[in-house]
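hey can u check if this looks right to u? its 375 residues, i copy pasted from the old doc so theres a chance i mangled smth
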Amino acid sequence: MTSSPHRVQGLNNDEVVADWPAIDAQEITWLRGRFPQLGANSTLRWHSPRPLSAAAIVDGTGGPVFIKRHHHSVRSAGSLEEEHRFIAHLATAGMPVVQVLASNDGRTALEHGPWTYELHAVGAGKDLYRELPSWSPLTDIAQAHEAGRVLATLHRAAASYHAPQRSTHLLVARDDLIRADDPIAALKADLGNRPGLARYLARIPWEEQLRRDVLPWHHGLAARLQDEPRLWAHNDWHVSNLLWNDDGTIATVLDFGLASPTSALFDLATAIERNAVAWLQLERGTDAVRIDIALALLDGYRQELPLSPTRVHLLADLLPMVHFDFALSEVEYFEGVTGSTANADVAWQPFMLGHPAWFATAPGQALLAALHAAA
């Protein structure tokens, strides 16, 4: 969608031309007139290599400011403010979340031309995993334990937050289809509202593939999830979204872009999937999974919030399905927004179909067995 020389991380852990042009000086000038935190001299310091939006760090009046820009088809100001209200609630409850900055008129998201902007104060702490690609597993047991513990404190704070489901499916982690008795029927009923996804699925035998490769893992989950409360959750609890103090504690929690009302177990399962498996290096076999990291996340979580054996078994059984709704949202994004059928194929094949297939391998089975044993 752009001929910009700006390059970002591709889906295969390679470097590719960005879909979205880098934030430039003209945009910063426009934002400066609306966000007093930018000041008269807002020098660009850094462009993010993340691929699904554009982001930069600039100098501000009180320190560096993080600017994130979305295409309006992905995030409207209203849909961004859904995230921001959740962050504000967590901040009020004492969670160390990133500070969202407000414009002159009190808005935390502004639309301009085809773009939607949000600004954050740069969080306190060290970004220990800043140079690593997405899907890189966590490598430190103590950090994993702390990440699990803080996730539990976030869930405790989120329990008093009540808001409707997100207004978009795009690049949001939801569990609607996992909770459905018949995920295929539920998806079919929604395709009229998701033309990009419908266009992609029309070209492949998707029902047959899901019934064969994915839905056997769904058997019985919907009934078991009936007693699992809805909870607004982070839904992308990867170490790259955490900043760290020198003493090994978490200083700041970042990036609530995938947040939505799911459940505590969904969020914890996502954290284990994101941090304990080297999804881009599965050829390493047993070395691609860090069972010790998964168990440390679980132990840290249980330090703050006890989990019954029944819920730990459910947590393990959620793992092969936890990617389901988000994989569809990525297919929809690549097919319907960026127009990249090749990337949509990646989201469908190694992500939608490949993740549950891995859980049937010896390394995947070992991870699930360890979690069941931990119950």
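The longest strand covers residues 63-71.
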